[in-house]
Design brief:
The chain is built from seven helices and nine strands, in the order ββααβαβαβαβαβαββ. It is of the alpha/beta class. A seven-stranded mixed β-sheet has the order 5-4-3-6-7-9-8, with helices on both faces. Strands 1-2 form a two-stranded antiparallel ribbon. Bound molecules: S-adenosylmethionine.
Length: 232
């Protein structure tokens, strides 16, 4: 047995729809995208979907014209919902999570298979560089859903982002953040790493309610979304 076999597995479904988007033609059928996410209960943080994930995935869906054909890398992907949505929209995706957690990477591969999409799955531990990272193509987007959850790791996440932005200086790092304490602040670290952040109001991309993509995971959590770029 692989250990996971004894844990409780299930598949969560998310549904993204263009219905009701500003500028949508009334006589056109809405675009609907379904993403299936295999989860394992009572296991590590990365084996179930966090409230930030549907919010970031909804941003990707809303920005689908920019994501189609783009090179995208997701950090700390866990169950990889934003990556699945990006891949379904035609992005070329690299899904990453902690290199020391092969069961997470196996779950990402299973998620991609379930959704019949192709993507590269890589171990990427924040703050560390591996030979595979050096071979990545230039990226347009770096994604992170709830990767700033443990304050001592904040700078390690940004160290990885800074490394990726060195070879892709025009890439955008888009992350969704769950506010767990008002005392936490990323600003000094962003300044240290020569980055700037712009908050995108959730209403701009249809993620301002307690339910997003048919899921009530976001609920009443305080979730924010930011786009980070290098300071020129
Ligand atoms: C709170 S979970 C979020 C998972 C997923 N992005 C989501 O929103 O559903 C944090 C994720 O970061 C990953 N992680 C934690 N420490 C890491 C590290 N040092 N390097 C890379 N990934 C890490 C965990 O394995 C987990 O998948």
């Amino acid at each position: 047995m692989d250990g996971l076999a004894t844990a409780s597995r299930y598949v969560r479904t998310f549904e993204f729809s263009s219905a009701g988007e500003a500028g949508a033609a009334v006589d056109e059928a809405p675009l609907v995208l379904r993403a299936l996410v295999p989860e394992v209960l009572n296991r590590s943080y990365g084996l179930y979907t966090w409230p930030c994930a549907p919010v970031l995935a909804q941003y990707v869906f809303h920005e689908r014209r920019r994501f189609a054909g783009a090179h995208v890398l997701e950090l700390g992907a866990g169950t990889a919902l934003p990556s699945i949505v990006a891949a379904k929209l035609g992005a070329r995706v690299t899904v990453t999570d902690c290199a020391a957690a092969p069961q997470l990477l196996a779950n990402c591969r299973r998620a991609l298979e379930l959704n019949a999409v192709r993507a590269t799955v890589l171990g990427l531990s924040w703050g560390l560089v591996s030979p595979e990272l050096l071979q990545l193509p230039p990226l347009q987007f770096i994604l992170g859903s709830d990767v700033f959850y443990d304050e001592p790791l904040f700078e390690e996440v940004l160290r990885s982002v800074a490394f990726l932005l060195e070879t892709s200086p025009h890439a955008e790092f888009v992350f969704s953040y769950q506010e767990r304490s008002s005392e936490r602040c990323l600003e000094p670290l962003l300044v240290k790493w020569r980055m700037q952040a712009r908050q995108v109001p959730l209403a701009e991309f249809g993620a301002d309610g307690p339910a997003v993509a048919g899921s009530d995971l976001p609920g009443n959590h305080s979730i924010q979304l930011y786009v980070v770029t290098l300071k020129q």
